[in-house]
Description:
It is a single chain. With 630 residues, the protein is α/β, with parallel strands linked by helices. It contains 16 helices and 31 strands. β5 (76-79), α3 and β6 form a beta-alpha-beta unit. α12 crosses α13 (362-374). The longest helix has 20 residues, at 91-110. The radius of gyration is 30 Å and the shape is elongated. Residues 155-172 have low confidence and may be disordered.
Amino acid sequence: MATGPTSHVSCGLDLACTPDIRAALQTSNQSGFDFICAPIAHPRFKREYEKDAPIRPGAFTRSDLLLPGSDWSSLVVGKVSPWIDLESNDERVQKNSLKILLQEISFACHLSMPSLLIKLKRPDNFQLAQVLNSSVLGSHLQQVWVQVPITSCQTNRDFSIIKDEPDVIISSSKKDDTWCWWNQLRFLCDQSRKIALVLELNSKELPSQEELDRWFAEPVKAVSIPTSVFLSNKKGYPVLSKAYQEFVRRLFKLNVQFIISGTAQMKNISSYYQYLDHLYLTQPPADPVAQFAKGYEDYLQAPLQPLMDNLESQTYEVFEKDPIKYAQYEKAVYHALLDRVSDEKKNEVTSVIMVVGAGRGPLVRASFQAAKMADRKVKLFAIEKNMNAIVTLETLNEEEWNGAVTVVSSDMRDFNPTEKADILVSELLGSFGDNELSPECLDGAQKYLKEDGISIPCEYTSYIAPMMSMKLHTEANMCREPGKSIEASFETPYVVRLQNVNVAAEPQSCFKFVHPNPDVPIDNTRYKRAHFQVATANVIHGIAGYFDAVLYKDVMISIHPKTHSEGMFSWFPIFFPIKNPMYVPDGALVSIHFWRKISRTKVWYEWCVEYGQQCSNIHNANGRSYFIGL
């Protein structure tokens, strides 16, 4: 079975019955399929137990000698008997189902099957969860694939009453919302990584967009598509509706496998695989951001701290390749120069531009180009604290800029120029806007900007939104460092290319900073409480963070999902996890509390999430796990 990106779609064939498993494997392989899903026991062989012994003698299923061990362990996903009912009201049925399930689990482990496929058929699965916790999660079985229908088809079955207790009611949303079935099971299994999701597309019509979006935040291992969902084109070949095509193409990005089920005629089964493979191979080309981010999807990275740490050459090099950011900066400087100096005075006035935090000089280069386009005279300063980057600036000044730049090796907060700047240019922004301490740096540099001087950027705003992602939460849990507390990995923000996530509500503004800052003394501490209406039931695993910035007038850069600067890849969003995931129902009002705190030596964030009477703890109190050094 495929485990990583391939040049073709990875697809399996779900078989209701396999009288000859060797022939089934051969036929499926010849049709293009990578694996099969086969019943562990014959579907019609309903075993019954008296006490601990089966009533019928003899083997309950086929011999393991029919296939070599390598085939059992890589090409066959075992399916448990569909008639097993652990939640039955009939105690005899319940106990018998338990013995049968344990028998099949044991045989799957004996064969070293890669996965065990179990279908969810109802809202509550406590008995199943108990069995999985006790018999599977500690076994040698690699994974349990839990197959969940995308819509509930139990319209004729009344789930409103639990067993014989008429006073215990299941809400209609939980009864009909199959995501709630899955969510309950994964929490009962302590969100084990051994529990993977197989999403069954069991309906001709897809649910609402809000309901669909949640599945993209789940650990979807495979997607089961019954042949009944397909349509026939003019030539009689199977195709999917436009809505389904779009949905399946979104799933390709999660590197899921597909399973074709429900077919009765093996001779035409290859056409289903060929169609899915066609969709896979004809995906639209990735945009520049996706190309740049390839391999970094859902990969947690520590935010940069360029004030406390000196960036390495390769880090500078990566960001200098951004085709949009520096074009926007050039445009901003161009318009600022035009506004600063009229056409009548362009030969008389020289504008002083100071690039603070100049790095290896891309903003200096953009400023020169802007001056050339505007036909304005400029005098340029490049201020940089990184001694290693100064080497590059001095070299460029000699070889490219003909000594026209005054290179200053200094922290911008300590620099004392002999003249003041008309335009102050900086790129000190982080994924959350202010998280690389742009406010503190530019406030410190403000003293050498003329009273009517221009700061580029002139303002920037951070944004927050509640977010669901079991994958990112699991990854954060694995980021524990020796010598640090258990909470530390959940009290640290991460820069991440968001993919296997669901942002549960529209982002709202958090902190805003303006430059030059007219407030004296300057106070950059902040507190924000934002309220979010969550349309459908979700699990909040943390907070997604973004920013946008006004460089000058209407020239902007943004990583906000609605206004993202097309093609710009210098920043990924930021993720603030919470230690204990919080379930919220349909229509929940979720509040996020966010603080920006400052001491003499550091800046840090604190955050918590609130819903009704539930409230997470305040994360990162006093900057105990994460801070940005001043």
